[in-house]
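Can you please make up a whole protein chain along with its backbone structure tokens because I've never seen that pairing?
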Amino acid sequence: MRSAAFVIGVLVLAALAVVGYQQSRPAGERAASSGAAPNGADPTAELASRLLLPPYQQDGATYEVRLYPGTLPPDPKVDLPRPAGARLVGSSVRSRNGTPASLDVVLDIPTSTSDVAGFFDRELTKLGWSAAPNRGGPQGGFVPSMLAASKSYCKGEN
């Protein structure tokens, strides 16, 4: 329940950030919004994209997110170990300038947080992955009293 509240809180904050950013832009630069997805696009996909991607473009870069409900992307180039009893909720791939930049995988695992963390530390290390540097937590604003466990791993130079 707390993790659901945290996710909802993050989504609300992201929506507020997008709205605030749009309102701070000059009128000529604001995106037109009629309440419908442009060009007949899937409104759920458009909402997900706006919530999951940066609301601005750095250095003229283009960003894209692809969602894969219930599955991994085709040819994910990652052999992700799965704990016993794990259920794959889905995954997403974020791309920058057409090149995959990150893969997120959501699993439901019927065990304790510390057991899950230990499993991935052990199994991903065997596959040549290492824990990403800790960049600290939220620094103000709406900070939940109980943060969900989250850890990132890196492999290779990038």
In short: Residues 1-36 have pLDDT under 50 and may be disordered. The beta strands are 63-69, 87-96, 99-108, 130-131, 153-154. DSSP finds three helices and five strands in the chain.
